[in-house]
């Protein structure tokens, strides 16, 4: 089936989906933190790569990565319309993630990335975060 949107329009539509999706996953994690007494985090801080959360005292950054946008190995779908466009776009996203990790780690930040799908298993998510918080 042909895409009803032009490529530019599709890009715009998808970027709106992205920002909404991202907010939902961020809020889910924030809720989890609150419910389990994890404190010391901030959102919307100006740190390289725009982490979803930072723990400023620990110099720790947490990203919640959407399965589609960050090409999760389990759930990434490969859109068939404009396949080449999406392949390039998603590869660029992954490259950017790696660059953000490298840059933050080089600046002595701890970086934790949580997949959107991991939020379905909050206990495991929390265990990963807690472990990272305790690392020195
Ligand atoms: Zn996934």
Describe the structure.
With 136 residues, the chain is mainly alpha-helical. 49% of the residues lie in helices and 11% in strands. The protein contains three helices and three strands. Strands 1-2-3 form a three-stranded mixed beta sheet, with helices on both faces. A hairpin with a 4-residue loop joins strand 1 (53-55) and strand 2 (60-65). 18% of the residues are buried. Bound molecules: zinc ion. Residues 67, 72, 74-75, 115-117 line the site of zinc ion (ZN).
Write the layout of secondary structure elements.
Layout (H helix, E strand, L loop, with lengths): L6 H29 L17 E3 L4 E6 L17 H24 L3 E6 L6 H13 L2
Parallel strand pairs: 2-3
Antiparallel strand pairs: 1-2
Bound molecules: zinc ion (ZN).
The site of zinc ion has 7 residues, from loops.
